[in-house]
Amino acid sequence: MTTRNPETETSSEWLTRDRLMSALPDALLEKIRAFRDERDWAPFHNPKDMAIAISLEASELLEHFLWKNPEEVTARVESHREAISEEIADIAIYLTELADNLGIDLADAMEAKLAKNAAKYPVEKARGSAAKYNEL
Ligand SMILES: [Mg+2]
After folding, report:
1. 83: burial class by Cβ within 10 Å (0-12, 13-18, 19+)?
2. pTM score, two decimals?
3. What is the pLDDT along the chain (136 residues), one digit of tens a residue?
């Protein structure tokens, strides 16, 4: 995996489509596949159960913030940063594997969806607004 030189490249220049696509399979996707295959878990990793697993891990992330006001959320992030990081990683690992299992290029899918979102939320209408696209 390559690393960015902040003196010569901005983060957006570094995160070009090709670099993102090559970094993920090389550095992480093979580890995710190996982790699953060494345990012979592929038979369990059907799309339904992977989607459920993603949702459950997202719920574990949400649990950190349940019933907390904004100040308590900020404090929770500081006091439980590692645990929150692990839940984010759980979500990302399952998401990456699901996309891989379905033959979906995650980087391509993200780029396509970002382009759709940009069209739905034009900067001149959406800047500073939390409104849904159909209410802008
Ligand atoms: Mg978890």
Report:
1. middle
2. 0.79
3. 345 565 666 655 555 544 444 456 567 899 999 999 999 999 999 999 999 999 999 999 999 999 999 999 999 999 999 999 999 999 999 999 999 999 998 888 999 999 999 999 999 999 999 999 999 9
115 Cα–ligand 1 center, Å: 30
Residues with Cβ within 5 Å of ion ligand 1? 57, 60, 87, 90
Ligand 1: centre distance to CA 48 (Å): 18
| Spatial separation of the C-alpha atoms in residues 76 and 94, rounded to whole Å | 24
What is the 24 CA–ligand 1 centroid distance (Å)?
A: 21
User: How many whole angstroms separate alpha carbon 36 and alpha carbon 16?
Assistant: 29
